[in-house]
Write a structure and sequence with these properties.
This protein has 169 residues and is an alpha+beta fold. The protein is built from six helices and nine strands. 29% of the residues lie in helices and 28% in strands. Belongs to the peroxiredoxin family. Prx5 subfamily.
C-alpha cells in the first residue's frame, strides 16, 4: 500500500553529494533525515527509477530544473529528485545535467524511504534491482498535499508541468 494524500511522509535517511564544502556540510556524501528536511517547508519532490536513464535524464529532471524559478515563485522552498542510486551517482548526474543547485539530488541507495512510501518497483528480473516508481508530490511540513504516481513507468502525470499547475492552484 502506498502513501496517500493527507498522510505524513515517513522518516528515513537520504544522502546528498555536496560538491562545495560549507561550515555545516563537508564535501562528499552527507546524510540527512527526511523528518528534519521537511520541517516547516513546502517541498516539490519527484522520484525517478534511475539516474542516467533515458526518460529521467532527457525529460523528468530537466523539466524540474527548467521550472525551478516558477516553483519558487509559487511558494515551494525546495525541489527534490530522489532515486535508488548512491550519492556519488546522483552528484555526477546532477553535474552532467548542469542542475547547479536548482534541484536537490537525494540518494535512497537501499530503497529504504522508497519502500516506506510503498512506491518501490522491482526490476530485479531485468538486472536493475529494486527501484522507485516514477512519481511527484507536494509536501507541506511533511504532509502529502499532491501525489502523482506513474503506474506504467512512463512520464505522463509526474512531470514538472503537472505538479507546478497543482502547486499554483
Amino acid at each position: 500500500m502506498s502513501i496517500s494524500v493527507g498522510e505524513r511522509v515517513p522518516d528515513a535517511t537520504l544522502s546528498e553529494y555536496i560538491e562545495t564544502a560549507t561550515e555545516s556540510c563537508p564535501m562528499g556524501p552527507n546524510n540527512f533525515q527526511v523528518a528534519d528536511l521537511v520541517k516547516g517547508k513546502k517541498i516539490a519532490v519527484f522520484a525517478v527509477p534511475g539516474a542516467f536513464t533515458p526518460t529521467c535524464s532527457e525529460q523528468h529532471l530537466p523539466g524540474f530544473v527548467a521550472k525551478a524559478d516558477e516553483f519558487k515563485a509559487a511558494g515551494v522552498d525546495e525541489i527534490w529528485c530522489v532515486s535508488v542510486n548512491d550519492a556519488f551517482v546522483m552528484g555526477a548526474w546532477g553535474k552532467s545535467l548542469n542542475v547547479n543547485g536548482k534541484v536537490r539530488l537525494l540518494a535512497d541507495g537501499s530503497a529504504v524511504w522508497t519502500k516506506k512510501l510503498g512506491l518501490e518497483f522491482d526490476l530485479t528480473a531485468k538486472g536493475l534491482g529494486v527501484r522507485s516508481k516514477r512519481f511527484s508530490a507536494l509536501l507541506d511540513d511533511g504532509v502529502v498535499k499532491q501525489l502523482n504516481i506513474e503506474n506504467d513507468g512512463g512520464l505522463h502525470t509526474s512531470d514538472a508541468d503537472t505538479l507546478l499547475k497543482q502547486v499554483q492552484s
